Amino acid sequence: MIYLTSLICLIISILITPLVKKFAYKIGATDRPNQRKVHQKIMPRLGGLAIYISFLIGVLILRPQDEFQLAILIGSAIIILTGVLDDVFELSAKIKLGGQLLAAGVVVLGGVQVEFINLPFGGELEFGWFSIPLTILWIVGITNAINLIDGLDGLAAGVSAIALITITGMAMIKGDIFVVSIGLIMLGSILGFLFYNFHPAKIFMGDTGALFLGYMIAVLSLLGFKNVTFISLIVPIIVLGVPISDTFFAIIRRIVNKKPLSAPDKSHLHHCLLRLGYSHRQTVLVIYGISAMFGVAAVIFSQVTIWYALVIISVLLLVVELFVEKIGLIGENYRPLINFIRGILYAPNVKK
């Protein structure tokens, strides 16, 4: 029944996206081209509404049961409302952040919190009151990370789909039926929308979609890996390696250049690949491939011993460092930072 519901969500998403496209034009939810954007014509940007409607229908059909279900649905409604208002009226960064904090707060009050972790060599680390800000920081951070990579046709939707495949697959291994159900409902809804969103896109997901996908991925990853071992807690970070690393380097750029964290720029991963000569579609496919690599690494990481896990982490950090330097994601002005990271990675080898 779960797989059938996912298929139904995919079909519904395909059917209603054209209706959402017409609605977006009607209410003025459009994205106009400018110097920092890749598209060259006015585009409707309310596509995330189609994903959300398909998702709700899937939940009504399957009715997955969990103590956190109501809080998640209320939070998703808040995040969707925030996204819709931004797509129509272009809200300020503070108001958008307020909506994200409210949605995250609802989930936390509903009981979704990382309260403790089991340490690798024995013992338990209790977070106490810090569990609330840590959980909110994770949800808001991942929500914005997905929003930041939404710069090319099909990019955010595809990366989110790959992350959901990984999270759902690991939930299957653990026997977590609720996460599997919600994950497959989300996956069907996204793939149906991607039919219209892949290059050349006929509609953008807008903040409505990017914020919703980020919020749901953040919450599902918490449900799958909260209150576990320190090593297991790293798994969702690996799964979301592409958006997290892109956000990390974006923050560094803006701090060094003394710009607000919400300031846009054209130095994200997809911008760098485009400057290297990759086409729009090739750039998206390359990032899909990198996301899939992180997904596979996360699955392997979750199944090995602590020492093998540390080896995997070291290799991934080395790959990220080399890739960042190769494509110029940071740039020559940040050479001291690159050397610092390299020193950390290679220090153990030097000591030997």
Radius of gyration: 20 Å
| H-E string | HEEHHHEEHHHHHHHHHH
Fraction of residues in helix: over 70%
- Please count the beta strands (DSSP E, at least 2 residues each): 4
Q: β content, as a range?
A: under 5%
Oligomer: single chain
What is the structural class?
mainly alpha
Stretches with pLDDT under 50, minimum 5 residues: 348-352
Span of the ends, CA to CA: 55 Å
The coarse overall form would be globular
Largest sheet: 2 strands, antiparallel
Strand order of the largest sheet: 1-2
Average of the residue pLDDT scores:
85
**Alpha plus pi helix count:** 14
Describe this structure in words.
The chain is mostly helical and 352 residues long. The protein has a domain of 228 residues. It is 72% helix and 3% strand. The protein contains 14 helices and four strands. The strands form two sheets. A two-stranded antiparallel ribbon has the order 1-2. A two-stranded antiparallel sheet has the order 3-4.
Blueprint of the fold:
Blueprint lengths: L1 H26 L2 E2 L11 E2 L3 H15 L6 H21 L3 H17 L6 E3 L5 E3 L4 H18 L6 H20 L2 H21 L8 H20 L4 H10 L1 H16 L12 H7 L4 H24 L2 H22 L7 H17 L1
Antiparallel strand pairs: 1-2, 3-4
Helix pairs in contact: 1-2, 1-7, 2-7, 2-8, 3-4, 3-8, 4-5, 5-8, 5-10, 6-7, 6-8, 6-12, 7-8, 9-12, 11-12, 12-13, 13-14
